[in-house]
Amino acid sequence: MDRTNHSAVSEFVFLGLSNSWEIQILLFFFSSVFYVASLIGNLLIVLTVTSSPSLQSPMYFLLTNLSIIDLIFCSCTTPKMIYDLFRKHKAISFGGCITQVFFIHAIGGAEMVLLIAMAFDRYVAICKPLHYLTIMSPRMCILILVASWIIGLINSVTQLAFVVDLPFCGPNELDSFFCDLPRFIKLACIETYTLGFMVTANSGFISVAFFLILIISYIFILITVQKKSSGGISKALSTLSAHVTVVLLFFGPLIFFYTWPFPTSHLDKFLAIFDTIVTPFLNSVIYTFRNKEMKVAMRRLCTHIVNYNNIS
User: Fold this and answer.
1) I want to staple 90 with a disulfide (CB 3.0 to 4.6 A). Which of 14, 20, 138, 162 is the partner?
2) 165, 3 contact by CB (below 8 A)
């Protein structure tokens, strides 16, 4: 359908994070450092797992794909935000805005499913270790990966189906640094309260439901371990702590965005920066420094790269 028949708006303008020159410089260095660190950390995880025979297990397969998702997620909004920091006219085309919304929701949905798969992986590894390789077979891992992306795409297409043909004829300013779906809907030239409520409630329900599923699964794992062996509870806690931390970092800002009933523009922006820039970096740090096998494999990879460079 030709969008020009429905909308006179060809671009949207971001109001950005701050008008203060000092704060913009601080945000530029902060965002640049964490974005580069996120790229390096997650790329290092991918390279380490793919090049280390000792890490060819379902857990590391899922971790590699989580790192790939984090790489894509932080690249959806951060480069544009860094580029816009010192621009007066922070604009994005209508198509670019739709594309950004599509990828954010697709990747977010895929990551939710992948986090549940990682919780299931830990359940099998801790509670049914003898059947681990049978249950978490290569075929199962591939099915999980395909399912995560299919569900992510369905989630994104479902969200966009409600808004892609909305008419936009007047205001085009978004009080954000990326295309946020609830704010995007509010700029339409028709009454969108019901539609906005539906989209927000849908995203909020999905976020809360997935979060509760994960927390309940971790509690169930701990209860199962405690029943089998009281001494194993500390080991299970140590194993699960990294996963729980990542879950809290991912779902915390999402649940706040979609369930907090009062407008909090500055806090929303802070949490958006944290979610898109800091969380992907922290995920790589948590899974690296909480895992002895990963640290050993990374040292081995770095040593191999240094030795190769010295020889060449």
Assistant:
1) 14
2) yes
Residues with Cβ within 8 Å of 223's Cβ and at least 6 positions away in sequence, in order, are none
Cβ atoms of residues 107 and 73 within 8 Å: yes
Residue 126 phi/psi, 5-degree rounding, is -85, -40
Tokens 């297409």 belong to residue: 157
Q: How many helices (H) and strands (E) does the chain have?
A: 11, 3
The DSSP output letter for 4 is G
Is residue 263 very low, low, confident or very high in pLDDT (cuts 50, 70, 90)? low
Number of Cβ within 10 Å of residue 194's Cβ equals 8
- Residues sharing a CB contact under 8 Å with residue 125, sequence separation 6 or more, in sequence order: 59, 132, 136
Side-chain half-sphere CA neighbours of 86 within 13 A: 6
Backbone angles phi, psi at 167, to 5 degrees: -80, 135
Radius of gyration of the chain (CA): 21
Q: How far apart are CA 200 and CA 168, in angstroms?
A: 20
Q: Are 99 and 14 in contact (CB under 8 A)?
A: no
Quick one: DSSP state of residue 174? E
Q: What is the pLDDT of residue 1?
A: 41
Write down the pLDDT at residue 309. 67
CB-CB contact of 84 with 14 (8 Å): yes
Amino acid at 33: V
Q: DSSP secondary structure string, 82-124?
A: HHHTT-SS-EEEHHHHHHHHHHHHHHHHHHHHHHHHHHHHHHH
Taking residue 292's Cβ as centre, other Cβ atoms within 10 Å add up to 8
The CB density around residue 86, as the number of other CB atoms within 10 Å, is: 11
CA atoms within 13 A on the CB side of 12: 27
The β-bridge partners of 93 are 11
Read off the pLDDT band of 265 (50, 70, 90). low
